[in-house]
Model the fold of this input.
Amino acid sequence: MSYQVDEKGFYGEFGGAFIPELLYPNIEELQENYLAIEKSPEFQEEFHQLLKDYVGRPTPLFLAKRLSAKYGAEIWLKREDLCHTGAHKVNNTIGQILLAEKLGKKRIIAETGAGQHGVATATVCALKGLECIIYMGEKDIERQAPNVARMKMLGATVRPATSGSKTLKDATNEAMRDWINNPEDTHYIIGSVVGPHPYPDMVARYQSVISEEIKKQMDGLPDYVIACVGGGSNAMGAFYHFLDDKEVKLIGVEAAGLGVDTEKTAATLTLGTPGVLHASRSIMMQDKDGQVLEPHSISAGLDYPGIGPAHAWLKVSERAQYMAVTDAAALEAAVEVSRLEGIIPALETAHAFSVLKDLDLKPTDRVVINLSGRGDKDMNTYMEELNLNAL
Amino acid sequence: MNNKLTELLKNKPQNLLNIFYTAGYPQLEDTTTLLTALEIAKVDLVEIGIPFSDPLADGPTIQESSKIALENGMSIEKLFSQLENHTPKVPVLLMGYLNPVMQYGLEAFCKRCSEVGVDGLIVPDLPMYIYETEFKEVFEKYNISNIFLVTPQTSEKRIREIDANSNGFIYAVSSASTTGSKTDFSAAADYLGKLKEMDLKTPILTGFNIKNQQNFQDACNYVDGAIIGSEFIRQITDVDDIAKATANFVSSIK
Ligand SMILES: Cc1ncc(COP(=O)(O)O)c(C=O)c1O
Done:
């Protein structure tokens, strides 16, 4: 069974490029060039040099002793939180800015939920001196204020998306509309393994450095690799080089919001059905008429009604398992990781930690958790939800 | 089943006026009121939008109308039941995004279209190769035309491919833009001129930012007709009598 994209851009029945004709030339240009550019020696050299000297890679693989003691297994943390800008998102934006440069693009657009992808995009645009416009849901602008300020400090324009649930889905719609209106000079840096082919594969390749490093850093294979899933880029990066190692259990963790039995949830793979959203066929949350449902999660980065097509395929083909964690359980896990390991995780990442208690772990099990980002951006939410001022 | 669209286009008519509006807007039951008013006003074709929660290729006016239509309770099933009570006299096209159509079921959808007198479909996020491999057979079974879009960025090679695969008209987007977002038509003149010179077998209608009689005539100098969407929706928004507003607007154009 292949877990990689086929030549038409599909993972099994999922994927493809369901784009309006207006975007055809842009997508065709990417489809025809992304692999050749990625494989060119100049790209490889600059990509790896920037990952090393600018992002600070390789990121450490840290043995979390107190978490290990608590859960009775070896728990290793892949420290993507130590990347420049504070999350894994920058691995992808470095790759895509080099690609945009090679394609001669002058203007960069992106969507963002938690703001980490927006910051990572604004960062590489500053590095390369390119114009940068970030679309962000109005609700996310409010709950991720520190990241909005960072984008502005970096010289980006932040445009609010005011339609729908005013979150990541709506920001993505606005970014796509911008691209339709500016098809010639603009590159759209999508922030996850979503969107039309070749984005899911391209972003997975740029993020695959995560599992490439884990493989080198561990001797032998882990028993589990666990990552949170919004669109699915940090999870795909962490899974990538283990996909064909069947003995490694891969677990993606999505946001259950207030619970999978409520309407306030973002547990796409748990509750969704096949459909086309943001130009790819995947699994999505929709009503009986095929209208997209408005999701809910406390974490802006997981508050999305879709998921990358590769994850839909990994689920359907039973290569990976997907679990859902509520807002409350994620908050609890965030506190636990902070107090046991001295690491404040991003709210997205906290979801991944929360499943430790639900796994049937043996003392010899080696578990890798992809620590996708740090919690600085979430301090407003943590202060409010955990009532930190009163402590 | 006869197809009113291919009937109409058979004799290569010129100056075709196609009016677009969103089903279930401004009020749920306005769909057929508008259809009747447009028939009385003698437009050549009518294009009815099926509202979608995430209309990627639409500008603010049509987005807003879709949102209100959904709040009004519009759905594909509802639209078919409305059309069932009003057999259209003009060619009718439905414009809808792929996902709601797929959830309804492709075969069921096309069957219902042919039953209620819909002649053609515009599915902006249906790529040509998927149409060819998965959709074409069903469309043909129910005698429904598929309308493709072309833009100023579409290569000549691809335009010729689209021409070969078309059985209605080609929808030429008059500038690379989401619906209704640019004000100037003149930028499109070069592009439409080039399309005309290509001498395609399929008639061409242009759309996306035609607002008035001048724009309409300019467009018809190059191609076979034009589509007015966002501007028509503005004309029927916040008015007391949408039928009267429709009559006035159409007579101001043609
Ligand atoms: C720290 C962090 N982790 C995870 C995510 C979710 O995205 P993905 O599933 O693409 O990794 C985000 C998104 O904003 C994030 O900021």
